[in-house]
Amino acid sequence: MAAMGLDAYRFSIAWSRILPNGTGEVNHAGIDHYNKVIDALLAKGELLYTLTFLLQAEQNEEMGMLLDVIWYEPVSNSTADVESAKRAQEFQLG
After folding, report:
1. Which among 61, 85, 64 has a CA at the least distance from the CA of 73?
2. What is the distance between the alpha carbons of residues 63 and 54, in angstroms, rounded to a whole number?
3. What is the pLDDT of residue 68?
4. pLDDT of residue 27
5. What Gene3D superfamilies does the entry give (predicted)?
6. What is the distance between the alpha carbons of residues 1 and 7, in angstroms, rounded to a whole number?
């Protein structure tokens, strides 16, 4: 990234990597992964900004969110296309 002259890098924390069961025990391999990413950025002298999405009083319990959804439609009315589009949509939306 430095060789390309990039002056910004954005990454998101995949909470499923940190808390694979949603709650409970922390996955230390996930913590190690993000520590390595952050250490690599610091080694290049990059300034880090950490954004935490906590509902704080001064925000009046409001926060921003970005949703990126891809909608799938079957190419035809064939059973295979309809099932494929449904499977892709379920994968996308969960």
Report:
1. 85
2. 8
3. 74
4. 92
5. Glycosidases
6. 8
Per-residue pLDDT tens over the stretch 11-29:
778 888 888 888 888 999 9
Q: Token pair for residue 32?
A: 């190690």
Boundaries of every domain in the chain? 1-51
10 Å CB burial of residue 30 (0-12, 13-18, 19+) is: middle
Angstrom distance (rounded) from CA 23 to CA 28: 14
Contact 30, 18 (CB under 8 A): yes
Per DSSP, 58 falls in state G
Quick one: 88 exposed, middle or buried, by C-beta within 10 A (0-12, 13-18, 19+)?
A: middle
For the chain, which ranges sit under pLDDT 50?
A: 52-55, 57
